[in-house]
RNA sequence: GCCGCUAUAGCUCAGUGGUAGAGCGCGUCAUUGGUAAUGACGAGGCCGAGAGUCCGAUUCUCUCUAGCGGCACCA
């Protein structure tokens, strides 16, 4: 390179600065202004992030990233991971480092070490990290040939690091970063020095196990999770958000609102209490009406089925470990993990004509899957559950139409539950699959056409389809921005074949129908879990287990309170009466904690005038209404969304 | 399934090598109070299950089970 050649740097605002010879991100930032020089952390040169110390050798478009910028977060978190690793190496030199990326909301670092880290160790690590930040160690980039780097890390006893570097394809120079005595392989870029991470902007969260290279055949490493932000305020806000999310935890609310419980004797299988079961049956009734509206026929099939059927369907071979089995009269039976084989049995009874298609068979199918113990999580991952399952048997040329109608139905239903933001994921052919490429081409096109017609945007999950056909997955976003995959539609060419489903076509010969597996809620259990967290336990009227509680100011109003209660009941409302000898403050507090949407209060005035004072959940306002009007208002509010 | 942590009253949690405590909740009594906790008294525990060490285990050790946080899995 010619030291005297001119370098022209174009800034985002279009202005150009010219330099003779050596220029780095830092020189540029200093030239623009001392404020920027102080805030700058990384420079972007022709779209690529570089260290501030990077020497720009030819003319380029550049921009400077400061701590204010959104991109800064990832860099900060990545640096936090490095500082964590440095701290751990200082404290426990025998520990080996592996990888430590930035992740959503923070970072982690995986360590290899005989002795497990303890929660106390977390505090020690965090304290040391703070010291390293205060030391203001320069973070210095260098390059080394791959093979030399492998050798270096081997000598240092870092066999995992050496393994990673050895797996980099060519013997190209790779970049290393050094801060203090800690050296790590890293693509960068990094902050200029450890001080930039800041004070009070990061926190170590938990210790967890994680497999080396994410493979359960490998040894388990110890992962330390942390969170890091641009400033103290952001960290505080994040910790606050976690606390708020914890308050919505459906396991906690399930107990508090007396919805369901779990116990040791039936791990992963919910016991529904009256309150929870009210929500469940409300949803079931709603779904039943929607399905009827959309031309589904509801059926019900056995939960316990002979092994033979599972062998025929292919489940015995593929999903055996996840199936519960039992034995009787020398035959082996399995609890169904899915409903599809049974639905094909219903389809197969008698001859089906092409005139009967599409045949839509729906079942609130009770399934059992022996999930790995570590996977269980409240209602979100259970071993016994009920799907809003259905199978559409149709001719190939009806896939688009059926999918389109399904998408419309699904959007309507999600909207009724208050979910308006829906994403679609499209999974196409996997490597290992059944069926010819022609058939896959056609099926994939059918699904995409349908999604387009409905006006949904989709993202592609390449190769993630089932071995028997492509699929659509529907993801909803809840009130605090979390995504949940609930709905699915899967094309299946294989099962009709395996279970020999056929129909008589217009040509009077047998044909193979296509089967569309589809669900909207997924499982009732999980969907209710999502609803609990979405509403934070404050269910809309139509779902609320108890819609209204009537109570008096004193027991002098008991007769009137009882009268109101009877009227609420006969108006079809889920009402409770509270004539306990307690003060009104106490009762309001208690029923508010129970998240009852409406409290009817009757004092002497109300009893005399045939009125009632309503207090709504979450409001301190009171409204006194004529009793009949008040009841009618609640009745209207309680109408299920599909009946409005 | 794997790694780590946890398991004491209905709930939240304290505690000890000599068989146990608080607050809330629950029951009784008094109080009848206009919108987020009235007071007094009382009942309630095989200290997750099994084994071991010990004169003695809720406490220490081991095994199991379940829960929690991750990882792997999720047809």
Structural class: alpha+beta
Q: Please, what is the CATH homologous superfamily of the largest domain?
A: Bira Bifunctional Protein, Domain 2
The description of the largest β-sheet is:
8 strands, mixed
Number of strand elements: 34
**What would the CATH topology of the largest domain be?**
BirA Bifunctional Protein, domain 2
Amount of beta strand:
25-35%
Residue-averaged pLDDT: 93
Q: How many domain modules? A: 4
Order of strands, widest sheet: 16-21-22-29-26-25-23-24
State the share of residues found in helices, binned by percent.
25-40%
- Overall 3D shape: globular
- CATH architectural label of the largest domain: 2-Layer Sandwich
Instruction: Calculate the terminal CA-CA distance, rounded to whole Å.
Output: 75 Å
Poorly predicted ranges = none
CATH class of the largest domain: Alpha Beta
| CA-atom Rg in angstroms | 32 Å
What would a concise description of this structure say?
Helices cover 35% and strands 28% of the residues. With 644 residues, the protein is an alpha+beta fold. The protein is globular.
Task: Describe what this molecule looks like in 3D.
This protein is of the alpha+beta class and 644 residues long. The chain folds into 4 domains: 6-66, Ubiquitin-like (UB roll) (Roll); 72-245, Threonyl-trna Synthetase, Chain A, domain 2 (Threonyl-tRNA Synthetase, Chain A, domain 2), CATH 3.30.980; 336-535, BirA Bifunctional Protein, domain 2; 548-643, Rossmann fold (3-Layer(aba) Sandwich). Helix content is 35%, strand content 28%. The protein is built from 20 helices and 34 strands. The protein has an 8-stranded mixed beta sheet. Helix 13 (399-416) packs across helix 14 (437-454). The structure holds one RNA strand of 75 nucleotides.
